[in-house]
Amino acid sequence: MKAIAFCGLACCVCSENKGCVGCQDGGCESHGWCKNYNCCKEKGLNGCWECSEFPCTGCMLDKPRIRAFAEFARRYGVVELEKCLLRNKEKGIVYHYEGQLTGDYDKCQTEEEIIEMIKTGNKLFGLPCYCGHDCSKCVTYIATQTNNDDLRRQAQSFYKETFGLDIPLEKFYCDGGRSKNVFELCKECSFKKCCIERGIDACGKCSEYPCKEISDYQQKYVNKCNQLENKAK
Description:
By secondary structure, this protein is mostly helical. It is built from 8 helices and no strands. It is elongated, with a radius of gyration of 21 Å. The relative contact order is 0.10.
């Protein structure tokens, strides 16, 4: 089996590879409509990353994860991509969750984050929240990404001791402030709603920044509580 498909999909860690010899060896049943497969075959390319028109649209490259994998192959080589993916699998990074065609790489918010995860094998990074809070240092976020109940209890104690809040342990789940799965107290975030309404991706990019609300909030809370470096005390 060739490790990487023409488009950038990783046959070497795909959950379907037990019954499939891989895209480049004719294992995929979708060749009839697959633009990437047919185009690479016609041009004599080993993958989309070798094409002068990369990345094109209207194909598998429209999907961020697949485009990021192909971009990694373009920058660092397909051998390095395979090497990193197999190493990451050993480190516990899941390409496909059981019964699904999505995994840890799909949790990333940007193409560059996916590339960084491939390079480092590290899941603990992410874009800051709309308000400016650094998710990568948040105890709740880290607890989620590492499935660490000790850190969940640490975060639980912080909110109990600091704010008098009794939050059940199972509520300490967050994939980052920009994700669909955010911490219980962030679900109705007014800053996130305001940014989305204004078509911006951070409060700091607003023409009215800093408004009184964000100024007060940042002064009191942003990067000042429930962070690992602060030991959530």
